[in-house]
Write a structure and sequence with these properties.
The complex is a heterodimer of chains A (about 325) and B (about 260).
Chain A: E1 2-6, E2 9-10, E3 13-14, H1 16-26, E4 30-37, H2 41-49, E5 54-59, H3 68-80, E6 86-90, H4 93-106, E7 110-114, E8 116-120, E9 123-130, E10 135-141, E11 146-150, E12 167-170, E13 179-186, E14 198-202, H5 220-242, E15 245-248, H6 250-254, E16 275-279, H7 285-291, E17 296-301, H8 308-311, E18 314-317, H9 320-335
Parallel strand pairs in A: 1-4, 1-6, 4-5, 5-12, 6-11, 7-11, 14-15, 14-16, 16-17, 17-18
Antiparallel strand pairs in A: 2-3, 8-9, 9-10
Helix pairs in contact in A: 3-4, 5-9
Chain B: E1 2-6, E2 9-11, E3 18-20, E4 23-25, E5 31-33, H1 35-51, E6 54-60, H2 66-75, E7 79-83, H3 93-107, E8 112-116, H4 127-135, E9 138-149, E10 152-159, E11 162-169, E12 172-176, H5 188-196, E13 201-202, H6 204-207, E14 216-223, E15 232-233, H7 239-255
Parallel strand pairs in B: 1-6, 1-8, 6-7, 7-13, 8-12, 9-12
Antiparallel strand pairs in B: 2-5, 3-4, 9-10, 10-11
Helix pairs in contact in B: 2-5, 3-4
The chains are: A alpha/beta (about 325), B alpha/beta (about 260).
Chain lengths: ~325, ~260
């Protein structure tokens, strides 16, 4: 079986789920990595180290910025040469979009956000969550090549084998640009939620710190937001010590405490870290849907009856404002930071 | 400016989903407009308010799909079209994209087609990109800011690394994320107007296309396994003592 894997990257920095997809591809057959960009030869080298047997490299100045139509046409041209049985992408914003467009170009169904896969004869069969993971569906597709996007952290990242190499075949950039990239505005930075192995999340409970006096002149709502934001600063510190990312419940986002990019849940990000620490989050069904696949869930909440404790392996019934500073200090001591 | 917004009808996010007879079932939970699509409707209405023009909502589905269309009408969309056909039984997302692209072409003169980022039932999130590819239009997904400037569209796309600012000539397909801003609630007058608005039904024949082939074959559905966890409640004589114990447990799990 010939498995082609698209390596998603931003300015030459691969997203971790790209290498997970290479690893998953290796369990099915021979892996050809697709590397598209400008000045991305180092990525081709990394692809071999993560297990790719061959690299198709489109490395041209006009590919410096990701544009869906140009990247999709680059893939289309390469696929027209034949030799691909299964085409895999990481489920990232670019990966999903290119998979969708390849689905149109190849007239083949797209198996989205796959969490498990296997070959049955020469057909790929997959498991994918639906209804935000409330249901798991076993599905297959009829087209050829078959196309799938793989959920981040659902497949192990292969060990990097320094010095492993293979053949690079150059491919041409696709034309037909319909858009222009004007630039980028900085994100929050730090570890992305979907890649994080540790997530520290806060909910409405982060606003209830009566000991904290808001600056004069704020009305009640402003004071609530201000208090919550002081609380999220604590979460950021803890995440920093643990090398993780900060998330939030929809309630915290809707209340204006933190931006939407941090929302975990059915209408936010679906995450599956090794450790998910929920602080002042009661555990609405929409939130649980977004983080239920975390390996170990830890909850700190004042309300012993909060639904979050039903999913948690460890819980503290108490005030996040008493526990968090002590927990940051305890972690710093243990991790010598 | 002629604007189209594509909507889907889904179970509410509070639904407890069960698998019964091999199919997903949500009991008595009401059907609603797909929550992501409310942002797309809001974006469509704001574009119309800034540029003038009309907004048409389209949905592919059975009679239940009128629920989402009625909601869009109640928010302020002028007209709605339901695409329903026995040939669409079991249609997959790629098939829906094919049908929607044909409907956009049939409407004619459309400059912007808007979508929510994904539907909360199937969770595919591929439809906007597939419609763009079929139409040969620019596909600008995950937009949090949308501005029209002459014959061009400027959007900010919410990506993993931050926002990408992209400009494309019209016509274009755009999918909208929650950062765009809160969708308006239907007004009393809007709800009355929606209840009186006739929603025409188009068949595949009206679009001049055959029933799309089914590319995704579901084999088996099952409910996600419930987590068999017993929560160990950590206590201590002081917050410091509790935190010490908790830190030890967390780091122990991390090393597994």
């Amino acid at each position: 079986m010939n498995i082609w894997v698209y390596i998603d990257h931003f300015k030459g920095q691969a997203l971790g789920s790209s290498w997970e997809a290479v690893g998953a591809g290796k369990t099915l057959g021979k892996v050809t990595a697709l590397v598209v960009g400008s000045g991305v030869e180092a990525l081709a080298k990394s692809a071999f180290e993560y297990g790719a047997d061959e690299v198709l490299l489109a490395d041209e100045a006009e590919l410096a910025d990701y544009r869906s139509e140009v990247y999709a046409t680059t893939l289309k041209q390469a696929l027209a040469e034949g030799g691909c049985d299964v085409l895999l992408f990481p489920t990232t914003s670019r990966g999903l979009e290119l998979a969708a467009m390849a689905g149109v170009d190849l007239d083949s169904g797209v198996l989205v956000d796959v969490v498990a896969l296997e070959l049955s004869g020469d057909r790929l069969k997959v498991t994918r969550p639906m209804y935000s993971g409330k249901v798991l569906a076993r599905v297959t597709s009829t087209g050829k090549p078959q196309i799938a996007t793989l959920r981040g952290r659902a497949f192990p990242k292969p060990a990097q084998q320094a010095g492993r190499t293979g053949t690079i075949k150059k491919i041409k950039a696709g034309g037909g640009g319909l858009s222009q990239v004007e630039g980028y505005t900085a994100g929050e930075g730090g570890v992305s939620l979907t890649d994080a192995s540790v997530i520290v999340s806060g909910g409405r409970g982060m606003a209830y710190n009566p000991a904290l006096a808001a600056p004069a002149g704020m009305d009640e709502k402003q004071a609530e937001v201000w208090r919550a934001q002081q609380g999220f600063e604590l979460l950021k510190q803890l995440a920093g010590v643990l090398g993780g990312a900060v998330g939030a419940s929809r309630a915290a986002v809707d209340a204006g405490y933190v931006p939407y990019a941090m929302q975990v849940g059915q209408t936010g990000k679906l995450v599956s870290p090794d450790i998910y620490l929920a602080c002042g989050i009661s555990g609405a069904i929409q939130h649980l849907a977004g983080m239920r696949s975390s390996k170990t869930i830890v909850a700190i909440n004042k309300d012993a009856d909060a639904p979050i404790f039903k999913l948690a392996r460890y819980g503290v019934v108490g005030d996040v404002y008493q526990i968090l500073p002590a927990l940051i200090a305890a972690m710093k001591k243990r991790l010598q930071k | 400016m002629k604007i189209v917004v594509c909507v889907k009808t889904t179970p509410d996010t509070t639904a407890v989903i069960k698998v019964e007879g091999g199919r997903a079932s949500w009991g008595e939970t009401p059907l609603v407009i797909n929550p992501w699509d409310e942002y797309a409707v809001e974006a469509a209405l704001q574009l119309k308010e800034a540029q003038g023009g009309t907004v048409t909502a389209i949905s592919v589905g059975g009679e239940e799909a009128r629920i989402g269309l009625k909601h869009a009408l109640a928010m302020g969309v002028e007209e709605a079209v339901l695409i329903s056909d026995p040939g669409l039984a079991g249609v997959d997302p790629a098939g829906v994209a094919r049908v929607l692209a044909a409907a956009v072409q049939k409407l004619g003169g459309v400059e912007v087609a808007l979508f929510g980022r994904q539907a909360i039932d199937d969770d595919s999130g591929t439809t906007a990109a597939q419609v763009a590819r079929r139409l040969g239009w620019a596909g600008l997904t995950l937009a949090s800011v949308i501005k029209v400037d002459g014959g061009s569209l400027r959007v900010e796309r919410a990506m993993e690394e931050g926002r990408q600012v992209v400009v494309a000539k019209l016509p274009a397909v755009v999918s909208v994320v929650k950062d765009y801003g809160s969708p308006r609630s239907p007004s009393f007058l809007g709800i009355r107007k929606a209840s009186r608005t006739e929603i025409p039904t188009w068949r595949l024949g009206d679009l001049g296309i055959a029933a799309p082939a089914i590319g995704i074959v579901p084999e088996e559905l099952h409910e996600a396994p419930t987590r068999e966890v017993v929560c160990e409640i950590i206590t201590g004589g002081s917050p410091e003592e509790t935190a010490e114990k908790l830190a030890e447990k967390i780091l122990g799990e991390r090393q597994k």
